[in-house]
Structure of Histone-lysine N-methyltransferase SETMAR:
Amino acid sequence: MLPLDNMSAHTDGVTVEFLKQKQIKMIEDPPYSPDLAMCDFWLFFSLKNNLLGRRFQSEEEIVQTATDMTKLVVQTATDVTTLLVQTATDVTKLLVQTAAVVTKLLVQTATDMTKLLVQTAADLIRSCANRC
């Protein structure tokens, strides 16, 4: 079995004829298509690189290896998603806590400024009353 990736050397008539003469079964990648998501290209590339240089005794061994690799990719994606959700939750909690502290500080500052303005206004009124 030989996986092919539509490279011109793989689709050349001489190559195809040689493989037929040697009775080598060809496994072709799907043609490039807008229906394939970018993750499909990444997954195919990843699978191809992990299979590079390996020799298999049967089609079942290839399928089992690819299945195991796909399960690993899915588990990794699940783990990363869980980590991202937890991080987003932690960041949200931190933002809420920070907002509460900032709000408390703003309220205290506004209260202090109001007291200072009232005191200043009272002092001005007394000062004017004493002069008049």
In short: Strands lie at 2-4, 26-28. DSSP finds four helices and two strands in the chain.
